Amino acid sequence: MAHERVLTIDGGRFLRGGREHRIVSAAIHYFRIHPDLWRDRLQRLRAMGCNTVECYIAWNFHQPTPAAPRFDGWRDVAGFVRLAGELGFDVIARPGPYICAEWDFGGLPAWLLADENVRLRTTDPVYLAAVDAWFDELIPVLAELQATRGGPVVAVQIENEYGSFGADPDYLDHLRKGLIERGVDTLLFTSDGPQELMLAGGTVPDVLATVNFGSRADEAFATLRRVRPDDPPVCMEFWNGWFDHFGEPHHTRSAQDAARSLDEILAAGGSVNFYMGHGGTNFGFWAGANHSGVGTGDPGYQPTITSYDYDAPVGEAGELTPKFHLFREVVGRYVELPDAQPPAPLPRLMPQTVAAPRIAALRDRLDLLATDPIHHPTPQPIEKLGHGFGLVHYRRRLDGPARTHTLRIEGVRDRAQVFADGKLLGMVERDIPERTLDLQIPDEGLDLELLVEPLGRVNYGPHLADRKGLIGGVRLDHQFQFGWEHRVLPLDDPTGALALENQEAVTANQTAGPAFHRAAITVREPADGFLAVPSTARSLVWLNGFLLGRLWDRGPQVTLYAPAPLWRAGANEIVVLALEPDAGTQSPDAQSPSAPSPDAQGLEIELRGEPDLGPLATPSTHADY
């Protein structure tokens, strides 16, 4: 006898446990939420009227190195799925291996890029071997949680929006067979944009096809019916909000407009998955990027900010937004609402401002923060150096005689500070590839250093193979410079390397370039807070050794979400790596920023009680989705 949760299709409709069923789902990502808050966020989505949650599984979050993947702690995806089931949800699992999700490299692990010849998302044997090894670990975990075995997982996706990337039926069939052979016996599906070319490239015979869109449900479902007339209509990603890139305004969508589009989906007999129900946060270095250029060397790189609030019905810190209430009202017209109330609003910390003295220049702490030097004739990307994230330091000795040369640095991914004998010469960045610097070499020669700061890897489109660091050459005039020393600064938790510093000595230190600052914030009890560092142009911020993310005065984001589980009663250590100390004193295009000035030695850190995600873009309407 089928378990009551098993989802099947009959006559163009869903049956759940043999009874007609409509899916009302919300996307939520365990990897973007502190695990102590999983229950809170799930309960809020249940109260909105959802009977299902959908979740991507980020391969790189579980396996950031080629070592065995981890499924413990924050990576306990099985625990997250079981919790959702206990709270009354069915679960739709989307294991990729590619997920997009505005997540670094679309969820693929960076170490794949160490092989220059790998062809991602194809039947390339090197790529498939890595995918198969990952599925050997992951899929048996999911299989045990399927509704056919008494668990909450009712459906599993094959790849993700593949028709937006390529057309390779053999690749999709390999993944389909791989899921089945490893124990998946529940409903399989694909999801793609509502265009016939995308559906042609992304669908699999005899597998449910779904579409992703934010508006014009009748048009989207009509396209789906032309391709799959017998499949029930499903909007697998209802884009009720949007994400933000650095340098853009904060995107929002009118709650009324989104609710009208939701009503159109449900009125057409469709099932829906809110993307996102709750967005969460791209903590650490996990934010991805987009690229609008035709080629990888073209301008058009668009890194994503730390917040993934997404203007969702449940906000980044658990806020119930106007969309929450309007969506609940619309859902209640079509399905019976659960007897569930959302948790009370979570407490917030009281605002305060603290000083954060400069305690160490990053370049003075290379021996403590960086890996052992690796030498190679040409600059190597971070992936070929055995790492996925952090900064990369390149160094080479240039010999005289004295002369002024034009320095060209090719293939910066994504920003590079250039130092000549310890002096900050200028900045080179990815989207201004034509920029050059004038370099005066004395008779005795000089040390040339390049400190490269990667941002997120591209997560969507044709430019996925987005290696970081330097992927080109360095030239003086037309002459390539060979023989480079490489060191990686992973920066997982730099507090140990800073613990024994002499405060007086480092305060006077004038070494150019990025510098660490430290402060203590005392709180009575842990609660949610939001941290701002308005006195630096670009920074990384750690709370008690945990990297919250990145701030940049290009905006829009002003505050970083610091959830209650990361705080402790009493003193809390805040460390800021000021990558550009002098906020507002130089243009982003300046070629010759100065060394730190005495009045830039200290920063101010603001603890706020409310988030600030920046100035709003003009509210979007259905025409933009």
From TrEMBL:
<dbReference type="InterPro" id="IPR048912">
    <property type="entry name" value="BetaGal1-like_ABD1"/>
</dbReference>
<dbReference type="Pfam" id="PF21467">
    <property type="entry name" value="BetaGal_gal-bd"/>
</dbReference>
<feature type="domain" description="Glycoside hydrolase 35 catalytic">
    <location>
        <begin position="14"/>
        <end position="332"/>
    </location>
</feature>
<dbReference type="InterPro" id="IPR048913">
    <property type="entry name" value="BetaGal_gal-bd"/>
</dbReference>
<dbReference type="InterPro" id="IPR026283">
    <property type="entry name" value="B-gal_1-like"/>
</dbReference>
<feature type="compositionally biased region" description="Low complexity">
    <location>
        <begin position="586"/>
        <end position="601"/>
    </location>
</feature>
<dbReference type="InterPro" id="IPR017853">
    <property type="entry name" value="GH"/>
</dbReference>
<dbReference type="GO" id="GO:0004565">
    <property type="term" value="F:beta-galactosidase activity"/>
</dbReference>
<dbReference type="InterPro" id="IPR031330">
    <property type="entry name" value="Gly_Hdrlase_35_cat"/>
</dbReference>
<feature type="active site" description="Proton donor">
    <location>
        <position position="161"/>
    </location>
</feature>
<keyword id="KW-0378">Hydrolase</keyword>
<feature type="domain" description="Beta-galactosidase 1-like first all-beta">
    <location>
        <begin position="379"/>
        <end position="487"/>
    </location>
</feature>
<keyword id="KW-0326">Glycosidase</keyword>
<feature type="active site" description="Nucleophile">
    <location>
        <position position="237"/>
    </location>
</feature>
<protein>
    <recommendedName>
        <fullName>Beta-galactosidase</fullName>
        <ecNumber>3.2.1.23</ecNumber>
    </recommendedName>
</protein>
<dbReference type="Pfam" id="PF21317">
    <property type="entry name" value="BetaGal_ABD_1"/>
</dbReference>
<dbReference type="Pfam" id="PF01301">
    <property type="entry name" value="Glyco_hydro_35"/>
</dbReference>
<dbReference type="InterPro" id="IPR001944">
    <property type="entry name" value="Glycoside_Hdrlase_35"/>
</dbReference>
<dbReference type="GO" id="GO:0005975">
    <property type="term" value="P:carbohydrate metabolic process"/>
</dbReference>
<comment type="similarity">
    <text>Belongs to the glycosyl hydrolase 35 family.</text>
</comment>
<feature type="domain" description="Beta-galactosidase galactose-binding">
    <location>
        <begin position="514"/>
        <end position="572"/>
    </location>
</feature>
<dbReference type="InterPro" id="IPR008979">
    <property type="entry name" value="Galactose-bd-like_sf"/>
</dbReference>
<feature type="region of interest" description="Disordered">
    <location>
        <begin position="582"/>
        <end position="625"/>
    </location>
</feature>
<dbReference type="InterPro" id="IPR019801">
    <property type="entry name" value="Glyco_hydro_35_CS"/>
</dbReference>
